[in-house]
Design a protein that fits this description.
Strand content: 5-15%
Radius of gyration: 30 Å
Structural class: alpha+beta
Distance between the termini: 83 Å
Shape: elongated
Largest sheet: 3 strands, antiparallel
Helix content: 10-25%
Order of helices and strands: HHEHEEEEHHHEEHEEEEEHEEEEHEEEEH
Number of strands: 20
Length: about 500
């Protein structure tokens, strides 16, 4: 009965985003109109993310549903009255001093009343950074009579910025759910073009990846098109399985703190609410490698300055050799820089913030949401692809026992159809245009090139001759000299725009 209800309420929500202008096609698109089962606009064939639609609330609902019924309850709000959990991305507003005046305006470090809960700045900047990061604490622009602080990467030393330095407020649309300074250090270690600063390429990238990496139709049967009760049942089992066995959220922590946790010296609560605590044997698998060292409290357990370790190449009591090296690029972590940990991979592995990427698309895992399988990190989309075939028509995972394969892709039987008119292509002639199947009538109408001689469309299976942007049927009546009508097949020829000539003499006679 429950499955039947799920089937009946399936809808793609055609009201959402209706009429939004296309950012790619501009005036050529009449406005967003969702295709009945494809995840594209009926008018311009672009996706929802290519249209000017605000997705924040929808994305929050989507991620909320993803983590519903998991241990990551700290990431989502309580269930609302309509039963839909929401995910609240943590936002921070900071202030930046201008680059041009920064070099001459930094004062000697002195005490200040401004809160040091800030984003990174100052002593060392990554390539592409625009000046040091600073914060007002309240998220408002710094006034001329206030002193802003710039924080060093590896210490809490302050560098007050002169009160006359011009400042500008910058809002980060997402930061890890950790204390502000650590979150800001994490953001600074991302490539500049990937930092989610509101109104920039980085913020747009995050929103696009949210839609691409975490397709809602991979987790919610009601967002799929015409699933049978059996398919709904299989999909629910699939979702339950990856929530139990693969889904996770990265933790941002300093390696020296993790070393102390593994050594049993302190306790840290993870993002998902799971605490990494206790000595050897008390961390539920987080003490991997401790047996190789001299003991939980022995030399090198902290692997940092206080414990006598090096620059995070891995102490003898922390996961064995190389435990401080990035699991992706294999380069060591720098002292004082935060790393990303994944509980499902074990806390003996860590990643640079810019290296916490999907093993298939190599893109940053949006909001550090990962799917772990056989030692590899996946985004939601490519984890799904590794488990189930995905339909090249509707973009949904296929839970039916019957489907077809064509042109290197998988298709629901009813979805291998013309990309323009939706006619079924089984047993019909079709043409692949921009990696999409198109029936022959639609191809002739919308895509076929015209013969420069007879002006008729060139059939997809017809032989043709092309020169630059001009095309001709490879037939004597079309590919011929316009001066003497000599057939030019297999002959030398001259082309003047759409006109063909067999010789200079014919050209002179015709053009004069």
């Amino acid at each position: 009965m429950e499955i039947e209800k799920e089937v009946k309420k399936m809808t793609l929500g055609h009201e959402f985003g209706a009429g939004a202008s296309c950012l790619k096609c501009k005036d050529k698109c009449e406005g967003f109109e969702l295709h009945f089962w494809r995840k594209i606009c009926r008018n311009c064939k672009c996706g929802l993310m290519e249209h000017d639609v605000l997705m924040d609330s929808e994305d929050n609902k989507k991620v909320g549903k993803l983590f519903q019924d998991t241990k990551y309850t700290g990431l989502i709000a309580k269930l609302k009255s309509d039963g839909i959990p929401t995910y609240q991305a943590k936002m921070v507003t900071i202030s930046l001093p201008s680059v041009s005046s920064r070099a001459s305006s930094v004062l000697p470090a002195t005490a200040s009343s401004v809160s040091p809960a800030v984003a990174p700045a100052g002593s060392r900047q990554p390539a592409g950074a625009s000046g040091g990061w600073a914060s007002t604490g309240a998220g408002a622009p710094v006034k001329a009579d206030k002193v802003a602080l710039a924080m060093g990467l590896a210490s809490a030393d302050t560098e007050p910025v002169h009160k006359d330095v011009p400042m500008k407020s910058v809002t980060l649309e997402w930061v890890p759910p950790v204390e502000r300074k650590l979150a800001a250090l994490y953001i600074e270690l991302l490539p500049p073009e990937r930092r989610p600063v509101a109104g920039t390429e980085g913020a747009a990238y995050r929103r696009q990846q949210m839609a691409h990496q975490l397709p809602e139709h991979d987790q919610d049967p009601s967002k799929c098109h015409e699933l049978s009760p059996n398919e709904v049942k299989k999909m629910k089992q699939f979702v339950r399985k990856y929530k139990d066995e693969a889904l996770g959220v990265g933790d941002v922590m300093l390696p020296e703190d993790v070393a102390l946790v593994l050594a049993g010296r302190q306790t840290i609560g993870g993002v998902g609410g799971a605490a990494v605590a206790g000595g050897a044997g008390g961390a539920g698998g987080y003490t991997a490698g401790l047996e190789e060292g001299p003991g939980a409290a022995g030399p090198g357990a902290g692997a940092g300055p206080a414990a006598g370790g090096g620059p995070w190449a891995g102490g003898p009591g922390v996961g064995g050799p190389g435990a401080g090296a990035c699991h992706h690029c294999l380069n060591p972590m720098r002292q004082g820089e935060p790393a990303v940990y994944a509980e499902r991979a074990g806390y003996d592995k860590l990643w640079h913030p810019a290296c916490f990427v999907c093993c298939t698309c190599n893109e940053l895992l949006v909001d550090m949401i990962y799917f772990f399988k056989k030692g590899k990190m996946y985004c939601g989309r490519h984890y799904g692809d590794s488990e189930k075939p995905r339909c090249g028509g509707c973009d949904e995972l296929i839970f039916s026992n019957e489907y077809t394969q064509a042109e290197g892709q998988n298709w629901h039987l009813k979805h291998f159809c013309c990309f323009d008119c939706d006619c079924i292509l089984a047993g019909e002639t079709y043409v692949m245009e921009n990696d999409k199947p198109v029936c022959q009538p639609c191809y002739m109408k919308n895509y076929a090139v015209k013969c420069s001689s007879c002006q008729a469309a060139v059939e997809p299976d017809a032989q043709r001759v092309s020169h630059g942007n001009h095309h001709w049927h490879a037939e004597p009546q079309c590919f011929k000299c316009v001066g003497c009508s000599k057939c030019l097949m297999g002959q030398r020829f001259m082309a003047v725009q759409s006109s063909l000539f067999c010789s200079v003499e014919c050209k002179k006679k015709t053009m004069t």
